[in-house]
Amino acid sequence: MTDMTAQTMPEPTPFTETDRDRFRELPAHQQSDWPDRGALDAVLHALPQQDLVSRASVDELKRELANLESGGGLVLQLGDCVEDIDTDVRSATCDKITFLTHFRSHLRARTGRHVIGVGRLAGQYAKPRSQDHEMVDGTSLPSFRGPIVNSPRPTLQARTPSPSRIVHAHAAAQTSYATIADYHRSTANLDPIWTSHEMLLLDYELQFLRHGPYGNHLATTHWPWVGLRTRQLDGAHIAVAATLSNPVSVKIGPDTSPEEAAELAARLNPHDEPGKLTFIARMGRQNVARLSPILRSVHRRVEHVCWISDPMHGNTVQAATGFKTRHVEDIISELEQFQTIVGEAGRHPAGLHLEATPEDVYECAENAREPGDPARYRTLLDPRLNPEQTARVLGHWFV
Ligand code: PEP
Ligand code: MN
Known about the structure:
Low-confidence stretches: 1-6
CATH class: Alpha Beta
Number of domains: 1
Structural class: alpha/beta
Bound molecules: phosphoenolpyruvate, manganese (II) ion
Distance between the termini: 44 Å
């Protein structure tokens, strides 16, 4: 039977430039201003073409997510706002795996539920920005858009998008995946680590799309998400996401209308498959009530949507010290309200999405103590929870 299927299944045809052009013709926000398109294309075409994740592993994650709803399990998705690639990537990946598996066990032990561990890992290299430029010492510079595009160093040269960074970022992803594979080999009977990142930089992601029998396989990550700034219904990011066989998620914010959320659900999960679609709510602690009409509207159209909470991105403030921060108490408030509201809607609160690091940083504020020490504020962009703060937040997941 299996052999028959293998024989009758048509060989997937390669993804062509014409296929990619169909997406490139659509409006896409948050793409970078590459000074030399020819140099960018040359780099993209020269990238090693091997899949970073296999179709089989993506299908396995989708089955795991499908079981979440029926089995009452949880997702724990965490990692850096943006990963550093100018570091010892193997050692950093080892630390992130240890951190994720530690808190996966911790949440499992506290709740007695199955927990799926997902890293913002092995490809979280591109960032959307609210402003294209920022002022540094009286000079306007292009914003840092993640190490796959430019450098955070505040000089015009460092901030100019450079295609060679794509080569470097891809090599970092290969190193991270090799490290994860080593971990899986050494722990054969334990649960796998899954990867996720924001599917933002289309030029890069389109290079890793493959035709498949049940939609396109995105071979850069198990579980891509579409961010708040690129979730337009007529935009390229949603058009790509709608063709994928991978499970996908989308950030939902205070400005997302109930109708828009329902339309996104219908576009991204047209066959109402369990495990296919997750909404990551990042409302801000004062706006969580706006989720109620969104939940009702979405579930009038689609049954199978998982709901998880990102209680961080809606609670970012500027500290008096000038650092961007988030108060742990605000994060906890949003997380608790999220669980109550999703539960009241008769749905399963399916887990959380956090920016957190194994490093001993102090980037998020606690008990009104704001970050002030640059030596303990090391993030490339958004403030992350340190391990103690991560434990404190997870302690507010209702059992
Ligand atoms: C992020 O997850 O780092 C991010 C930019 O989130 P959002 O799209 O929700 O603002
Ligand atoms: Mn972030």
